[in-house]
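Forwarding these from the shared drive since the link keeps breaking.
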Amino acid sequence: MTDDQLLRYSRHILLEEVGIEGQQRILNSHALVIGAGGLGSPVALYLGSAGIGQITVVDHDRVDVTNLQRQVAHTQERVGCLKTESIKQAIEELNPEVRVHAVSQRADAALLDQLVDGADVVLDCSDNFVTRHLVNRACVSHGKPLVSGAAIRFDGQVAVYDTRQAQDPCYACVFPPDEDFQETLCATLGVFAPLVGIIGTVQAAEALKLISGAGQALHGRLLMLDGRNMEFSELRLPRNATCPVCANRRADLAQ
């Protein structure tokens, strides 16, 4: 670690739970962020400010004026730009040491299979169940920890799905892919602007804890926020022994 890095990250290094070794792990790590919108903005900015060595951001969309109410990594001047390029610029302005890879494509199964394999932690900041299940399947396949977040109206949730832990569920254990979940989009129902900042920041914190080894991550726990009353609640998440996504993978690992 250079003298400049020791100064930049001194407030992390002062934390007994992080220290120089934990900060070095952060500097050496690679985070994959799926989605560069309301959740992806605070996730990317806090990971970048904390010194994540590499950040890959995946999103196929462009910045729209309706995004600016909550997607804080984007600006009026970058309306019409690809969101990945906009968020890349925002991270680099904040911390030029971070290597940012902008992938301006839709996150399909083939792309995720390629990108997840090279990541240390994956953060799902997407806004639909199809993508979430694709991300989860890739994380299970490659044995990577997944930090999943969601936010709509005044309600948000965060969980860590890490099938390297024997008792941890995967996303599909909790939200089975064959169930008919109703998609709720903020374009039709709305979303409270600070809510995505709160949930995205918690996602970034969980990713940094996983990488640095600090604290206890949200393994097997769903943290839910009622933003109307600013009340947090927690739900324990058991794994499904017959899960169609992770059960066979766990069996293979056990052999």
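-- next protein --
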Amino acid sequence: MARCELCRSSAQTVSVDLGVCLRCIREDPQAARSVADQAHRRSRRAFGFPEGVPDDPDGIICTVCVNECRIPAGGLGYCGLRGNSDGRMTGVSPVRGKLSWYHDPLPTNCVADWVCPGGTGAGYPKYAHREGPETGYANLAVFFHACSLECLYCQNWHFRGQTLRPETRSPEDLAEAVDEHTACICHFGGDPSPQLPFALRSSRLAIERAKGKILRICWETNGTANPSLLDEMVDMSLVTGGCVKFDIKAFDENLAFALTGVTNRRTLENFRRAVHRSRGRSIPPPVVVSTLMVPGYIDEREVRSIAGLIASVDPDIPYSLLAFYPHYRMNDLPLITREEAKGIRRAALEEGLTRVRLGNVHLLR
């Protein structure tokens, strides 16, 4: 049982590595941020990443994501993808990326599978005479080997071992993976945000390769992208019948920093921006939201705030509440109970949302 370094309270739902409880994050945010910052630095140090967002006044500026790194000479950006070599930006670019992919048969385990065409046939069936799940077709699942955040509970944390490796792929390599059975491409990771110039380029090539056949372009993202790049993401999904799946990790900025190491302001702003830009299409829903219910941290109060935000923009936006599994630096936390999850879902509905789903229910205890 862990103890909060600030109030010294003990509980099974206090993460040993994070070292601070939810009450202190909310009531003493400055002190809590100091404790959390050390946890994130330890996490990043283990993989050779910069311990904080580089902010060298003489460094090269990268504006691809919210961190807007000023990379010092000889240094790396926060995501570990770009460097500064004698004043020249090195690393990934629109023509070289760090990623891998595989074909995942439809319907697949996706946070939007209960509302998207691949899982339900809604809006854009592969062929006019077909309805229902796209059995026999596949999602090209594209996993990006880097992220703009440092989530201490990351469910896909193993990608960190690949970020600093030299191997890269071209947009043409990815586009060539599209075949006659590919119905959609979903970009996730890690997160596509730090490599969006590459992802947008490869997606355009893939659409050309599809030669007029339906090829939906979807994104599963933390929402930290540069707003102009976000607009391109949204537009591409709108045209192709895909969706943008926002992973809103927290509403409270102090809690977001404690869990992810980065502000959530850009994410919340981009969510509103994406919904506004995609108004006019309801089937399939262009924007879907998910939140991981982290025991002891993402509680009913936090989800109620997120749900209130979503409802204020559009109450019909689908919202997936995902059950937690102990992972990475927060692998000492328990599973969430079925009753807790039901209470959290009820709170989201009470805020005015019309479509709220519990995901990963096999992980509930």
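The first helix runs from residue 22 to 27. The two ends are 19 Å apart (CA to CA).

- D.
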